[in-house]
């Protein structure tokens, strides 16, 4: 099994097209991360001073330390008042320090002219998660930037997974190698298992690579300070819709978990399509279509069951907050989180791919 696994894994990655695609993917990720370099960071203060690079990050951390701790109405009002008193609150909301940008994006709901002092009830009404566990203010720029890069690249990784995995079985049909494989001693058992295992391993390794490179690049520059701060109390709002308060570290762990789940789920779906397709072109086309449709349709139609279904597709996993923030499915009086259904679907698809590919590819008649 080990030798066959290495052989099948080598077949996956040694194709010129796949090597070129992986190289292009890595280059795109490097370019994205270069654009996020700390050298490009520019922060303006309330008194008009502008900091750049590491000095800007140090200033942001100072402000984060000033307000560090539980988010409450006094801190929110103080931050908003400081921005208003500067005379240019709009500018500070997108050029100011990270805490000011975060609080502005969270609590300036219409325009700065209509900002008024907030009460604890106003804050709880806007972010119900606080009722169960208060938000913690901290320096979340590095964490949120890293997760934003990861999720952007994971969606692209899905395309690479499809074009790599789709030919696994379908290419054997079109090349005539299926007859040779299925008449070999281990062709209907070990060989098929090796193909499935190699495909899953490739996809999981790609997902982990997509996590590791941005994490390393961003944390080297910004540090890991703010790991215990609430990810919902951040400017980009990646997890605003998630009904449970999450720290940055918890959010990162969930991004990693669902990235792996998405990679496995997409691989299993693609393997089944490959086993059912008689040529690689058809397999790639169908698998890409099934991958792209949820990306295009999610939240475009106001149909809750449809959006719930689309959220547990692989593209939903690659945007962990999407599946975690989706409204629970209701079955009578029972509420089932979509994340649980997503994990269940992945297990079912994994077993189906394991058994189905062996039956479809291993059981077809060869000529």
Helix content: 55-70%
Order of helices and strands: HHEEHEHHHHHEHHHHHHHHHEEH
Which spans have pLDDT < 50 for at least 5 consecutive residues? none
Estimate the mean pLDDT confidence.
88
Shape: elongated
SS field, number of helical segments: 18
Strands, count = 6
Approximate strand percentage: under 5%
Cα(first) to Cα(last) distance is: 27 Å
Q: Main sheet: which strands, in order across?
A: 1-2
Report Rg.
24 Å
Would you kindly provide a written description of the structure presented here, covering whatever features stand out?
The structure is a single chain. The chain is 69% helix and 4% strand. The chain contains 18 helices and six strands. The chain has helices at residues 2-13, 16-34, 53-67, 73-85, 89-95, 98-107, 120-126, 129-132, 141-165, 167-175, 177-183, 190-222, 248-276, 280-297, 304-311, 314-317, 320-325, 338-363; strands spanning 42-44, 50-52, 69-70, 136-137, 329-331, 334-336. The strands form three sheets. The protein has a two-stranded antiparallel sheet with strand order 1-2. The protein has a two-stranded antiparallel ribbon with strand order 3-4. Strands 5-6 form a two-stranded antiparallel ribbon. Strand 5 (329-331) and strand 6 (334-336) form a beta hairpin. The longest helix is centred in the middle third of the chain and has 33 residues, at 190-222. It is elongated and about 70 Å long. It starts with a helix and ends with a helix.
């Amino acid at each position: 099994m080990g030798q066959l696994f290495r052989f099948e894994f080598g077949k996956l990655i040694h194709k010129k097209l796949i090597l070129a695609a992986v190289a292009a993917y890595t280059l795109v990720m490097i370019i994205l991360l270069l654009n996020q370099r700390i050298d490009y960071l520019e922060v303006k203060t309330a008194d008009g001073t502008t900091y750049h690079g590491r000095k800007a990050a140090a200033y942001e951390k100072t402000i984060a330390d000033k307000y560090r701790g539980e988010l409450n109405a006094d801190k929110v009002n103080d931050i908003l008042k400081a921005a208003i008193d500067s005379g240019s609150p709009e500018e500070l909301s997108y050029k100011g320090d990270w805490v000011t940008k975060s609080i502005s994006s969270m609590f300036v709901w219409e325009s700065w002219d209509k900002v008024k002092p907030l009460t604890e009830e106003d804050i709880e009404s806007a972010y119900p998660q606080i009722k169960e566990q208060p938000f913690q203010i901290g320096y979340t720029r590095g964490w949120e930037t890293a997760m934003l890069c990861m999720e952007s690249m994971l969606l692209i990784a899905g395309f690479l997974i499809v074009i790599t995995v789709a030919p696994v079985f379908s290419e054997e049909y079109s090349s005539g190698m299926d007859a040779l494989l299925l008449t070999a001693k281990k062709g209907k058992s070990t060989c098929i298992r090796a193909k499935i295992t190699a495909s899953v391993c490739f996809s999981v390794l790609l997902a982990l690579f997509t996590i590791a490179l941005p994490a390393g690049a961003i944390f080297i520059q910004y540090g890991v300070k703010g790991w215990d701060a609430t990810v919902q109390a951040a400017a980009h709002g990646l997890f605003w819709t998630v009904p449970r308060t999450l720290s940055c570290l918890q959010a990162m762990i969930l991004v990693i978990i669902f990235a792996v789940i998405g990679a496995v789920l997409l691989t299993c779906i693609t393997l089944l399509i490959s086993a059912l397709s008689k040529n690689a072109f058809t397999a790639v086309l169908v698998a890409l279509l099934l991958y792209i449709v949820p990306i295009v349709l999610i939240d475009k139609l106001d149909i809750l069951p449809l959006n719930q279904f689309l959220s547990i597709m692989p593209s939903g996993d690659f945007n962990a907050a999407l599946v975690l923030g989706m409204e629970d499915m209701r079955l009578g009086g029972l509420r089932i989180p979509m994340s649980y259904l997503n994990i269940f679907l992945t297990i079912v698809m994994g077993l189906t791919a394991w058994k189905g590919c062996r039956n479809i590819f291993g059981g077809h008649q060869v000529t």
